[in-house]
Amino acid sequence: MAEDGTYPPLDVPKPLAEGAWVVDGGPQRVLGLALPTRMTVLRLADGGLWLHSPTRHTPALEAALAPLGPVRHLVAPNTAHWVHVSPWQKAFPEAKLWAAPGVADRAHGQGVHLRAAGVLGDPAPPPDWDGQIEQAAFSGPGFIEVVFHHRASRTLVLTDIVQAMRSGDLPLATRLFSNVVGSAAPEGATPAHVRLVLNRRRAANRAAAERLLTLAPERVVFAHGAFYAADGAARLRRALEWLLRD
Length: 246
What we know:
11 strands, single chain, DUF4336, seven-stranded mixed sheet, Metallo-beta-lactamase, Chain A, alpha/beta, RibonucZ/Hydroxyglut_hydro, four-stranded mixed sheet
């Protein structure tokens, strides 16, 4: 981990499992905070690439992805993780964008037009990856996050509902914020502000969490912090214990 909280090398695909890679980017500035970001890349059965929560597009990253397969799907999993989608759509105009509810409207309100092929639902996935990637949604007032499980690699892909940023390596403002909300928990935790909204629909969100755990993911990737490269199901259960208990 670098002194700015990121996970070098940046903007390159790093192997995670067969048919799965992560791309670390950032730091991304959000409300004055500098946050590490991460994209997950999955290869589908047809050889096409599925890009979750795209990080910044660069010609070098585009070139590095080319040998892995053609980019066919872009995924904006919640209303916070869409800001880099537009350059990817320009680079790959034939790629389909799948967006969580509210993403297109949120982008439009900020002067960005996103061409979405469809809105992500729960639990039915688009036919393009049905049988390969399961999905579920966590939601609360003003918040929704669609999460995914890649069967072939046993990789669960989250975005914000679990975070594990090492506070000692973060810029001061981000360090203070992450310590207050709990996103600097060494073993990963749900930040306090996300817990607050998820608790408003606790029963449905607990059912979603239990469903994910039955899939027994080997690894759990999320956008901010040190993800679970092994022992994913057990570590996720500990991180979501607050939600799973009655």
